[in-house]
Amino acid sequence: MPRYHFHIQHGDRFVLDREGVDLPNLRTVRGAESQAACASWDHALRFIQNFPDRTTVITDESGRIVFVVSL
After folding, report:
1. How many domains does the chain have?
2. Does the pTM exceed 0.70?
3. How far is the CA of 37 from the CAs of 1, 18, 27, 42, 50, in angstroms?
4. What are the residues whose beta carbons fall under 8 Å from the beta carbon of 15, sequence distance 6 or more?
5. Radius of gyration (Cα) for the chain, nearest Å?
6. Who has greater pLDDT, 4 or 24?
7. How far are the Cα atoms of 11, 53, 65 from residue 26, in angstroms, in the given order?
């Protein structure tokens, strides 16, 4: 299963997600459609929600940016 990393940009600070989350595919990252993905998302979202006004940069295992969300 591929591993995705949820990096956070908050102001001038960039927090790397060194652990990452195993998800079945990129579609699951975008939609969190399966139960297994939802459990993995819980871990990522608990971390991410601590940073208001942030940009989340999701990368694949090779470091390629696959999705960016600004909140």
Report:
1. 1
2. no
3. 11, 18, 10, 9, 20
4. 7, 8, 9, 51
5. 11
6. 4
7. 27, 24, 11
CA 60/CA 64 separation, integer angstroms = 6
Tokens 């949820």 belong to 6
- Cα–Cα dist 26/62, whole Å: 14
- What residues does 56 pair with on adjacent strands? 8, 69
Range of the structural domain that residue 54 is part of: 3-70
User: Tens digits of per-residue pLDDT, 17-71?
Assistant: 888 888 877 676 555 444 444 555 566 666 666 666 778 888 999 999 998 888 7
Report residue 11 as tokens. Answer: 């102001």
CB atoms within 10 A of CB 63: 8
Handedness of CA 8, 17, 65, 50 (dihedral sign): negative
